[in-house]
Design a protein that fits this description.
Low-confidence stretches: 1-31, 37-49, 449-453
Number of helices: 12
Strand content: 25-35%
Signal peptide: 1-43
Shape: globular
CATH class of the largest domain: Alpha Beta
Helix content: 10-25%
Catalytic activity: Endohydrolysis of (1->4)-beta-D-glucosidic linkages in cellulose, lichenin and cereal beta-D-glucans
CATH superfamily of the largest domain: Glycosidases
CATH architecture of the largest domain: Alpha-Beta Barrel
Strand order of the largest sheet: 3-4-5-6-7-8-9-10
Oligomer: single chain
Number of domains: 3
Number of strands: 29
GO molecular function: cellulase activity; polysaccharide binding
Organism: Streptomyces glaucescens
Largest sheet: 8 strands, parallel, barrel
Mean pLDDT: 86
InterPro entries: CBD2 (IPR001919), CBM2/CBM3_carb-bd_dom_sf (IPR008965), CBM2_carb-bd_dom_sf (IPR012291), FN3_dom (IPR003961), FN3_sf (IPR036116), GH (IPR017853), Glyco_hydro_5 (IPR001547), Ig-like_fold (IPR013783)
């Protein structure tokens, strides 16, 4: 992503407005489809055998032939070298890969051999595959301060002694977004030259190359020229990286691009992507993540923390206990890291784990109220380890997800009073294998006598503001003793403010009155837990905070 100053978030330009550029983009897309789809293009280039991470049949494989799908995030190490706990925190949230921002010294302070060796060691200690990238190339040809791919290649050559022997653990991403929107066709030859330079020097690592157009390839140059770039690598161990931001705001654009590479058996990863909207559009991160999971493609979200514009911080202030709504989406949402990441087998496994856990024991009910029930069950067994349990509601042959837990206890909330429910439990392991279903238990909820012990508090703050607009954050806290499963927040703006875009929920506004319905990944708020929403909006001169909030019709304390 294009960097602004000494921190990490960029203003990624799209510039898709003129008819001439639109025609050029359409022509490039057509040429790319023809080039990728031809029988000759589909033939895999013969590469020399690799001992570590390598490419075969359009797939990224480990040295033992196990398919490896990246699930991770970007971390701005070069600007925050003191945040040494970040990789451990990223791993603890389930990632199997981290893309680490480095500098070759052209634009920022150079990361020397000792520092890079320490980063690689940190990745290995935390059982993470390490994608190392030079950020100084960002936007070359349009960004005056950007360095060349040739300069970046020389930097990698200076690290040859550090990286030799790390082919199982390290991927070399030559340069971040190494071309802007000015003459993006100029990207191809320098990319080929940089790949050849590293191979001629003896580098056997898998190499990753980023697209032009600030990584987004909206004019289709990488898509059209990918086959010729791939053929220039004598080892065949080359992976292409597309960065998906506001250019990719429709499902069709995303699926077309990703499917083109898969059909052509050309390896591709989403090396950066964002979800929150910006002034150029609203990226469709749901389709990005779902399509990557369906096609078995890697993705690396931008970025862990420290962005100049914090809207893309996954963790607030580098604190893994304070995930933003964007962080919650990436780690815990549908097709997110926690549910789809598989650790590289080089860290101890000998092959993919295909054995499912045994069925959990029969669940037992306790703490039955009018709207919730707590279930406990005997643990399942697994040949590696059980990593979680899924509670389902059973009605005939239909199952409905009810709760998830990492222990043998879960509370199911949002139930109706004086109603019979049947529950069962599945176990799952880190490889995604799911056990047979447990025996069922049927529970009848109690009479509705009110909801003592429930409550809420809302924190509202303006993160940033500018003439005519602002960015806000709303934190919803469940101060009660029972979980909340599904919610609607309501409040009124006092100064005519309007919401433009919101992440973490679905907003609706009529005059000053605003309601926000929960997103699937923010719907559950456990007792003493919280979720955070972010939004951008418009304003006049004044920007007073709302004075009152309700959650599901209940007045909340304002904190």
């Amino acid at each position: 992503m294009r960097s602004t100053g000494s921190t990490s978030r960029s203003t990624t330009r799209t510039t898709r407005t003129t008819p001439l550029l639109a025609v050029a983009a359409a022509l490039a897309t057509l040429l790319g489809l023809l080039a990728l789809a031809s029988p000759a293009a589909r033939a895999q280039s013969p590469g020399t055998a690799a001992t570590g991470l390598h490419v075969s049949g359009g797939r990224l494989l480990e040295g033992n032939g196990n398919d490896f799908v990246m699930r991770g995030v970007n971390h701005a190490h070069t600007w925050y070298p003191g945040e040494t706990r970040s990789l451990a925190d990223i791993k603890a949230l389930g990632a199997n890969t981290v893309r680490v921002v480095l500098s070759d010294g052209h634009r920022w302070t150079r990361n020397g051999p000792e520092d890079v060796a320490a980063v690689v060691g940190d990745c290995k200690a935390n059982r993470l595959i390490c994608v190392l990238e030079v950020h100084d190339t960002t936007g070359y040809g349009e960004e005056a301060a950007a360095g060349t791919l040739d300069h970046a290649a020389d930097y990698w050559l200076s690290l040859e002694d550090v990286l030799a022997g790390e082919e199982d653990y390290v991927i070399v991403n030559i340069g971040n977004e190494p071309w802007g929107n000015t003459n993006p066709q100029g990207w191809t030859e320098p990319t080929i030259a940089a790949v050849k330079k590293l191979r001629a020097a003896g580098f056997q690592h898998t190499i990753m190359v980023d697209a032009p157009n600030w990584g987004q390839d909206w004019q289709g140059v990488m898509r059209a020229d990918a086959r010729s770039v791939y053929a220039a690598d004598p080892t065949g161990n080359l992976v292409f990286s597309i960065h998906m931001y506001s250019v990719y705001d429709t499902a069709q654009e995303i699926t077309d691009y990703l499917n083109a590479f898969v059909t052509a058996k050309l390896p591709l990863v989403i090396g950066e992507f964002g979800g929150p909207a910006d002034q150029w559009g609203d990226p469709d991160e749901d389709t990005m993540m779902a399509t990557a999971e369906r096609l078995g493609l890697g993705y690396l979200a931008w970025s862990w923390s420290g962005n100049t514009d914090p809207v893309l911080d996954l963790a607030i202030g580098f604190d893994p206990a304070r995930l933003s709504s964007w962080g919650q989406r990436v780690f815990h949402g549908a097709n997110g890291i926690a549910h789809t990441s598989r650790e590289a087998t080089v860290f101890g496994g000998t092959g993919p784990d295909t054995q499912a856990p045994t069925a959990p024991g029969t669940p037992a009910a306790s703490a039955v109220s009018a709207t919730s029930v707590t279930l406990t069950w005997p643990a399942a067994d697994d040949d590696v380890a059980v990593t979680g349990y899924d509670v389902v509601r059973v009605s005939g042959t239909t199952e409905t997800p009810a709760a998830s837990a990492t222990t043998t206890r879960a509370t199911v909330s949002g139930l109706s009073a004086q109603t019979a429910y049947t529950f069962a439990v599945y176990a799952r392991d880190a490889a995604g294998n799911r056990s047979p279903r447990s025996a069922t238990v049927t529970v009848t909820t109690g009479k509705d006598t009110g909801t003592p012990g429930t409550g809420c508090a809302v924190g509202y703050r303006v993160v940033n503001q500018w003439p005519g607009g602002f960015q806000g954050e709303i934190t919803l806290r469940n101060t009660g003793t029972t979980g909340i499963n599904g919610w609607t927040l309501a409040f009124a703006f006092p100064d005519g403010q309007t919401i433009s875009n919101l992440w973490g929920g679905t907003p609706a506004q009529a005059g000053s009155a605003v309601t926000v319905a929960a997103a699937p990944y923010t719907a559950a708020i456990p007792a003493s837990g919280s979720v955070t929403l972010g939004f951008t909006g418009t304003r006049a001169t004044a920007n007073t905070a709302p004075a009152a909030f309700t959650l599901n019709g209940t007045a909340c304390a304002v904190s």
